[in-house]
UniProtKB/TrEMBL annotation:
Name the UniProt record assigns to this protein: HDOD domain-containing protein
PANTHER family: CYCLIC DI-GMP PHOSPHODIESTERASE CDGJ, PTHR33525
Residue ranges of domain HDOD in the record: 214-402
InterPro entries referenced in this protein's UniProt entry, alphabetically: dGMP_Pdiesterase_EAL/HD-GYP (IPR014408), EAL_dom (IPR001633), EAL_sf (IPR035919), HDOD (IPR013976), RNase_Y/CdgJ (IPR052340)
Domain annotation EAL: ranges: 1-223
Length: 423
């Protein structure tokens, strides 16, 4: 089967919604210069050599979201540890507990007071499965409450000076901390710190931060806000939550990427958004939605998204009426059939990164099976090309119900747009 249809008139709409997620990564090495992990650094634009951070919570949300559900920790760190900065607001909330990745080390910023409240938050995050690093920590403060709950301490070589760090290493080791010297610029500084017992090193003497980019589609602001409110309601219906996620292609894609992340440890094939939500649990979904909302979103989804929404709903309704396929699965096939147009990447590459069942993958890439036949029918119908059946085939049964199903799909999309305040 041919991949998703590209209409030149959609080019402008595609350009408005296709953006890039960006991260920089800088290696952290041991005393023998073997890479043990990477610090993942927020970047707002390709040209940024340093982070332009107006809001530290937004920066952390963007970094976590991009690392776990956009670029993927597999690609970024390859099984090694990922160090991510965390400000106080996110530290003391329960957001990060919902999407724990054991390979992630949370770097607690120097702006967070190292008191009993912080110590309690660190204990909670450790129980959840994270490892903790104290970033830009003052060498003389090793006796503070949060130290006992941490695994690493990072000393800023430029700010503190080599002598102060050398003097602090024994006390840090006695407290059970591994010492990371950051902003190491010169080889002679590395040699002296290594001889003093520093465990790990980060700085330009090894490598400058490297930019990593990937195309993305931003989620609908109105939908995310509504979903956040819904997820706070203990009485909310599970089906309503799934329906909200289904109506946002970007959020659905992130959700399935999260299920397929080696960092999360599920690695399960799914055939619908509903199954993905059940696997992750509402706590993880709430965290994903919250982080998505923090990163900044588009308030008015363009026409291309609405066309895809109609296609997905049309496929779902046809499946329900004809019983050719599971309706939620048909919705997912319709929703993801245009992924290549949104992300400007080959559909096969995108599908490979998602935990989809073989039936769905073959339907999307090869047009095989009942789902593939259904998708082919939908595409022909969208072009106004009527398929003839002989009275006994699946096409014949689809022809009987297609007109009403398509009108219902259009009405559904119009109602959705109205509810989200879109055009």
């Amino acid at each position: 089967m041919a991949q998703a249809d590209h209409n030149p008139s959609n080019d402008e709409a595609i350009q408005r919604i296709v953006q890039s997620v960006r991260l920089a990564r800088q290696p952290i090495v041991d005393a023998d210069l073997n890479t043990v992990g990477y610090e993942l650094l927020y970047r707002a634009a390709d040209a940024d050599q340093v982070a332009r951070i107006g809001n530290s919570n937004q920066a952390t949300a963007s970094t976590v979201l991009n690392a776990l559900s956009e670029i993927g920790l597999d690609s970024l760190v390859g099984g090694k540890q990922a160090f991510i900065n965390v400000p106080g607001k996110l530290l003391h909330s329960d957001v990060l507990e919902g999407i724990v990745a054991p390979s992630v080390v949370l770097e607690i910023l120097e702006t967070v007071e190292c008191n009993e409240q912080t110590a309690e938050s660190l204990r909670r995050l450790k129980r959840a499965g994270y490892r903790i690093a104290l970033d830009d920590f003052p060498p003389e403060a090793i006796d503070r409450p949060c130290v006992a709950e941490s695994h690493y301490v990072k000393f800023d070589t430029l700010a503190e000076g080599t002598d102060r760090i050398v003097a602090a290493v024994p006390a840090a080791h006695r407290a059970g901390l591994k010492v990371i010297a950051e902003k190491v610029e010169e080889w002679d500084v590395y040699d002296r710190l290594r001889d003093a017992g520093v465990d790990f090193f980060q700085g330009h003497f090894v490598s400058r931060p490297e930019m990593v980019t990937r195309p993305t589609v931003r989620a609908s602001k109105a939908n995310l806000m509504g979903l956040l409110i819904l997820l706070q309601d203990d009485e909310a219906e599970f089906g309503e939550i799934v329906e909200r996620i289904n109506t946002d292609l970007a959020l659905s894609y992130r959700l399935l990427r999260l299920v397929n992340s080696a960092a999360i440890g599920l690695r399960r094939q799914v055939d619908s958004v509903e199954e993905a939500v059940r696997l992750l649990g509402l706590k993880a979904v709430r965290s994903l939605v919250y982080l998505s909302a923090l990163t900044g979103v588009d308030g008015k989804p363009p026409a291309l998204i609405h066309n895809t929404m109609i296609r997905a709903r049309f496929a779902e309704l046809l499946a329900a009426q004809s019983r050719l396929a599971n309706p939620p699965t048909a919705f997912l096939v319709g929703l993801f059939s245009n992924l290549d147009a949104f992300y400007n990447q080959p559909l096969a590459q995108l599908i490979e990164e998602l935990p989809l069942t073989d039936d769905i993958a073959k339907a999307l890439l090869e047009g095989q099976g009942s789902l593939g036949e259904l998708l082919e029918y939908v595409r022909f119908y969208e072009k106004g090309q009527w398929l003839e059946g002989d009275g006994e085939t699946a096409v014949s049964s689809l022809n009987e119900v297609a007109p009403n199903c398509y009108l219902d799909a259009v009405r559904w999309d119009e109602a959705l747009r109205a509810s989200l305040g879109g055009p």
